[in-house]
Amino acid sequence: MKDTFQDEVLLHFEWMRSRGKVSPASLPIIRYTTEERLNEIIDFFNANQIFVANPHTYSLDSGGRGILPLMKQRKQENDPLRLLNPGKID
């Protein structure tokens, strides 16, 4: 990734506990220029089996993966009338 993007993309690494196990995670810090370029970078990461959630979307359905079923379940439990943040989790 460093060879491809030089200083356009930096990686912030940290350790996280998930399901009782500690594992490394990273957050790409991308120098934003245009939406097209951001999508090119995200597509490149995804094509190389590195998932990147798009933070530049108002809809959680568009930006993430994996946690959506649990988030949708929690949203239904906590907001059965769908009054909070309508349209962000469909």
Describe, in plain words, how this protein is organized in 3D.
The protein has 90 residues and is of the alpha+beta class. The chain is 36% helix and 22% strand. The protein is built from four helices and two strands. It has helices at residues 2-5, 35-47, 60-63, 68-78, and strands at 9-18, 21-30. A two-stranded antiparallel sheet has the order 1-2. Strand 1 and strand 2 (21-30) form a beta hairpin. The radius of gyration is 16 Å and the shape is extended. The N and C termini lie far apart (33 Å). The mean pLDDT is 82.
Task: Show the helix and strand layout.
Layout: H1 2-5, E1 9-18, E2 21-30, H2 35-47, H3 60-63, H4 68-78
Broad structural category: alpha+beta
What is the terminal separation in angstroms?
A: 33 Å
User: For the largest beta sheet, what order do the strands appear in spatially?
Assistant: 1-2
The total of helices stands at: 4
Beta-sheet strand percentage? 15-25%
Task: Provide a concise account of the structure shown.
The chain has 90 residues and is of the alpha+beta class. Helix content is 36%, strand content 22%. A two-stranded antiparallel ribbon has the order 1-2.
